[in-house]
Amino acid sequence: MTVQVGDREVAARHYPISIDVGTMRELAAFAEVAEHAGALRKAFCSEGRQLVLRVDRTDPSKNIVRGFRAFTTLLEDHPELVGR
Length: 84
Prior knowledge:
Blueprint: E1 2-5, E2 8-11, H1 21-28, H2 31-44, H3 64-77
Antiparallel strand pairs: 1-2
């Protein structure tokens, strides 16, 4: 798990933030969640469109800008998705 940076070899590791999967599944099972999901589908997923939903922390140091750049890269790499 190393990457080459210029003439240096740098160790790279990932430390994902864990979530309580059981609690998230319970929350997702609520009727209110299904209602909101249906409203999102109705508003944004007609005519072959897809919805990309991103949830970020409000702390700007948590890579919010990087997420928008990643989305830009997705659209550049897959122009067929633009407008969908």
